[in-house]
Amino acid sequence: MEGLERPKYCGTNPIPFRGPRWLLSSTPLRSSSGEHPLRHPLKVWRDPSDRMSALRVATLAGLFAPLAIAIYDSDAIRFDARPITNLIYRAGDWALIFLLVTLAVRPLSRIMRYSQLLDVRRMIGVGAFAYAAAHFTLYVVDLKFDWREIASEIVHRNRLTLSFVALLSLAALAATSTNGMVRRLGGKNWQRLHQAIYAIALLVLIHYFLRFKLIESMPTFATGLFGWLIGYRLLIWWRKTRNELPTWVLLALSVIIGTLTFIAEAIALGIEANVSPLRVLQSAFEFDFDMIRPGWLVLCAGLIVAALDFVCARFAKAHGAARWVEPPLAAGKRMS
């Protein structure tokens, strides 16, 4: 890490990585005196080498997009039967979306052979926490800051208990998301702590399911995507590889997770409606474009990712580019 180049490994052959060293390290660059970081911590639109980052600017725009949408829909929100509830649900939905996007950054960086994506992962994670905090704050406002009732609701309602635990855990991850905290905790300890994001995402998904009285397609679809992301990490861990997975493995994973989504939804709907899950599965092949089943959406998303991997792999091969591998600090058997 002393120079601007660092060996990057492709199989057994070392290939020099010519690029800014911050792509391979969690430690920020320092000035020539070695005392101060080159980038001011509030200048989040600049990369750790203090240069304007188009990727960071685009990420910030994406994080603020839900606010712009809410402002655009202000008239509809204002005339809603319960405007505050509308905002509560919007903030919660975006918190879950950004949480899943955070989990998707590493797989996409490998599949696209574009390691720079890792530079915005923490930004998106902090954004997920910000929307989760807004979700809870709006809930507190809705209860008119009656802290006794709020505490009673959190203790006695399972859905709120799970969400509150998830919020506190997200707060801990957000508070330790800076480079300074990475140095204080140490790379491995920091990684172990931030692996809690998988448990947090599971709690949030359960909370999302319990929000609806009936089995709905959106939480089922979100759970299917989460299952794909976890399945991808399990395959990386099981194969003990730093290289990207073959396209056929991504195809197989997409088919398996899509099938499991169909089965899980059929069982849940069968129990709810007191009918045979097989009848529910049969109805999955009755296509209705007004109501596409979550299993098809999960399968479609997986196939798009597999196609993206196929194109990126051919592009990298045609241009003689080295295969992207994880930085040594992030490699090994961990599932991040």
Number of strands: 2
Shape descriptor: globular
Strand order of the largest sheet: 1-2
Distance between the termini: 22 Å
Layout of strands and helices, then pairs:
Elements: E1 5-10, E2 13-18, H1 54-72, H2 74-78, H3 83-111, H4 121-142, H5 147-156, H6 158-175, H7 179-185, H8 187-194, H9 197-211, H10 217-239, H11 247-273, H12 277-283, H13 294-318
Antiparallel strand pairs: 1-2
Helix pairs in contact: 3-4, 3-9, 3-10, 4-6, 5-6, 6-9, 7-8, 9-10, 10-11, 10-13, 11-12, 11-13
Structure report:
By secondary structure, this protein is mainly alpha-helical. The chain has 3 domains: 1-52, no CATH class; 53-211, no CATH class; 216-336, no CATH class. It is 64% helix and 4% strand. The chain contains 13 helices and 2 strands, in the order ββααααααααααααα. The longest helix has 29 residues, at 83-111. Mean pLDDT is 82; it is low at 1-38 and 328-336.
Gist?
The chain is mostly helical and 336 residues long.
Keywords:
336 residues, 2 strands, two-stranded antiparallel sheet, 64% helix, globular, 3 domains, 4% strand, mainly alpha, disordered N terminus
